[in-house]
Design goal:
The chain has a four-stranded mixed beta sheet, sandwiched between helices. Helix 2 links the parallel strand 3 and strand 4. It is built from three helices and four strands; from the N terminus they run H-E-E-E-H-E-H. The longest helix has 17 residues.
Amino acid sequence: IVRTSPFETLLAKSEIEMVLKHGGYDYVKELKFHPSRKWRFDFAIESLRIAIEYEGIMSEKSRHTTISGMSRDCEKYNTAQLLGWKVLRFTAINYKNLASILMEYQI
């Protein structure tokens, strides 16, 4: 099992932000997207309704590793999609693919 530290999570989110900045995207960090829930996206390109989430499933303290935590995430992402958002989800293993995905799909 691959484990990541809080520092590695911070580094990954910093690299995601760098991709968005260098790509010239107008993005928001920690966007609250639901009118009554406290849900937030890690990053959002509001004009395109694209959310980018970094999943900390690889850390020991992550709530994403429990069935209840994963179920809450499913509720959040399903609701986001019903509200018209496209949610791109990344982990410690695949977050470096963000730039190529944005280019491939001409986002």
